[in-house]
């Protein structure tokens, strides 16, 4: 859940440009193959980007530390380096049509990569986050909303280690990264993508995964207010759309949020129950009761953020600009089924360990007992 301090706005004139028709749908082929550089590429979203880019005829080069090798359906060039130590030697002198930066969360990563790349890359696409926004109370806020401001002594001195020690810096540092992208590459050669909750097969956070697994288990299930809103995006939809943005040399900022219309917790749960053939029974608790029982939103009951007060707009941000630029969404039922199938393919140690998000079964049973009597 984002932090909510000071505010600033993105560089003036950084608006979203209209995309050509061929770039607005997955069924339309790009006009020509590109050479894509993906910084990262082996985490959650990256492998989906790689496979989709290959399917559309592009050449793909990855740059990372080489610690998570993957098998690809076609040739992928893999360069190694270390952004913590400013090791970009393998990129020097290389030219690319587009660079997609998936992992940068500290500004010196953006600055140091640009020292090597900005003269050798025609376009830069930065994956940011909706956590850059300073205010989550406004319903329908778009990409022009004020962002958090880094107020520490030196944004370039912040490291991934310092971020892990103080996650309240996440939003301000991501906003500072956005600013550095524009400073280095220019607004006419950059795009900023701000996802919210990314879900689906490969999600190691277990935030969304908790719900299909819990629904599949069935029985009385503790749920938050079912009318509260939800926004999420399947990692595959995000990945494929970023490749199409890269093909179109899109500029501007985009809230990468789904679905197209409004979705509530109740609709999400009902969809998962139907898709998984479950007989789960919803036992709904009010936000006030959950707070009294110290059941946290986002952590104990993942995905859920109260739809009132200072978080009323968190799951109600506008995604109109992204949808107009061709962002599409697969059915939530498919995401739920595919997530369960992915989970069932993991090794036994991972599947039998406690989930990284959500209520433990014993804790949920205690809460259900108190709630019901």
UniProtKB/TrEMBL annotation:
Ranges where the NAD-dependent epimerase/dehydratase domain occurs: 37-255
Q: Which residues constitute the signal peptide according to the record? A: 1-23
> Short name of one Pfam family for this protein?
Epimerase
Report which superkingdom the organism of origin falls in.
Bacteria
Keyword annotations for this protein, in alphabetical order, are:
Signal
Q: Which Gene3D superfamilies match?
A: NAD(P)-binding Rossmann-like Domain
Name of the protein described by the UniProt record: NAD-dependent epimerase/dehydratase family protein
Species of the source = Inhella crocodyli
